[in-house]
Amino acid sequence: MSVKLERINAELVRTISTILANETRDELMRTVTITAADVSKDLSFAKVYFTSIKDMSKEQLEKELNEASDFVRKKVAEKMDLRQTPKIKFIYDESIEYGNKIEKILSEIHEQEKA
User: Fold this and answer.
1) Cα separation of 43 and 12, whole Å?
2) Average pLDDT of every residue of the chain
3) What is the pLDDT of residue 1?
4) Per-residue pLDDT for 8 more than 80?
5) Entry pTM
6) What does the domain layout of the chain look like in residue ranges?
7) Closest CA to 17 of 50, 58, 54
8) How far apart are CA 12 and CA 7, in angstroms?
9) 43-87, pLDDT tens digit by residue?
10) SS (H, E, C) the chain
11) Handedness of CA 97, 99, 105, 111 (dihedral sign)
């Protein structure tokens, strides 16, 4: 991946995080943490990965965020100096849960070895 795309991805994460924390009235949006962004080479599309402390199904969270994606895209266009503002698709980030699951398994194995 090019340095330019990496920089845009990082800036997109920061910008969307700020928008969700400060410019939305929906309490659900404030529980969301943006973990990564993956912008296409032509800047037309961006996958934005997130997690949330809200006790809701992943599918419901994704649905709610994707319904707000036009609002978020408009705010991103105002804040970022891009030739084209990418269409945003929010995707639940499974990597943190996966990491926690691996950590738990390793802990269990370690405990069994002690016994």
Assistant:
1) 11
2) 89
3) 67
4) yes
5) 0.81
6) 3-114
7) 50
8) 8
9) 999 999 999 887 788 888 899 999 999 999 999 999 998 888 999
10) CCHHHHHHHHHHHHHHHHHHHHCCCCHHHHCEEEEEEEECCCCCEEEEEEEECCCCCHHHHHHHHHHCHHHHHHHHHHHCCCCCCCEEEEEECCHHHHHHHHHHHHHHHHHHHHC
11) negative
**In the chain, % of residues over pLDDT 70:** 98
| pLDDT for the residue 107 | 84
Strand partners, 34: 50
Closest CA to 48 of 76, 82, 83: 76
Q: How far apart are CA 76 and CA 39, in angstroms?
A: 13
Question: Which token pair is 58?
Answer: 């992943």
Q: CATH number for 3-114: choose from 3.40.50.360, 3.40.50.2300, 3.40.1390.10, 3.30.300.20.
A: 3.30.300.20
Label residue 36 exposed, middle or buried (CB < 10 Å: 0-12, 13-18, 19+).
Answer: middle
